[in-house]
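Sequence, please.
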């Protein structure tokens, strides 16, 4: 179980999560990249493209 840095909600990574997987906070919708540190998970901000998708 990890906590969302934005809103402190608990995010439960899937049991088969792998490092680098993107998890999304159900509460605030923020996306994070899952980082595995030993048996623990931590989060780092996902590389988002932003709103300028062009077309
Ligand atoms: Zn959140």
């Amino acid at each position: 179980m990890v906590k969302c840095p934005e809103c402190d909600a608990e995010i439960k990574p899937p049991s088969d999560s792998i490092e680098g997987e993107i998890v999304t906070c159900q509460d605030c919708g923020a996306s994070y990249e899952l980082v595995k540190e030993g048996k623990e998970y931590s989060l780092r901000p996902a590389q988002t493209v932003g709103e300028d998708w062009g077309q």
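The two ends are 38 Å apart (CA to CA).
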